[in-house]
Amino acid sequence: MNGLVLALLVALGGGLGASVRFLIDASILARARAQFPWGTWLINLSGSFVLGLIVGPLSGMVWGPALTVGLLGGYTTFSSASLEGVTLAEDGKWGRALFYGFGTLVLAVLAALAGLALTGSGS
Q1: pLDDT, tens only, 35-70
Q2: Number of compact structural domains in the chain
Q3: Which of 3, 20, 39, 106 has the most neighbouring CB atoms within 10 Å?
Q4: Quick one: CA dihedral 55, 57, 62, 68, positive or negative?
Q5: In degrees, to the nearest 5, what angle opens at C-alpha 48 toward C-alphas 109 and 91?
Q6: Residue 2, exposed/middle/buried by CB under 10 A (0-12, 13-18, 19+)?
Q7: What is residue 36's DSSP assignment?
Q8: What is the distance between the alpha carbons of residues 7 and 1, in angstroms, rounded to a whole number?
Q9: In this model, does residue 27 exceed pLDDT 70?
Q10: Range of the domain at 53
């Protein structure tokens, strides 16, 4: 596949992933009354899990980057998670900020490992 075509597919996937993230986050925010960024947290965990599920089966496939880098890269968001952790800390909610930061990191890695394990792609 032409590099330019693949780059366009990655861009389209990224746009779609970001749009899905926006819709899910807005939906969760409208329903959750908690002072915790559940939307971003759940998005990053589910994105890590799905990435773990598909990275093995897509290995070597020419359009794999459109789904991994594009779609899931657009869907998950480290920068928003970082900002939300800082916001919790600035609001004096240090326990929530630490849980959010470390919880996101640890649980996202475990979610990716679970996805890899389900497809037999993990080592």
Answers
A1: 899 999 999 999 999 999 999 888 788 889 999 999
A2: 1
A3: 39
A4: negative
A5: 75
A6: exposed
A7: S
A8: 10
A9: yes
A10: 3-119
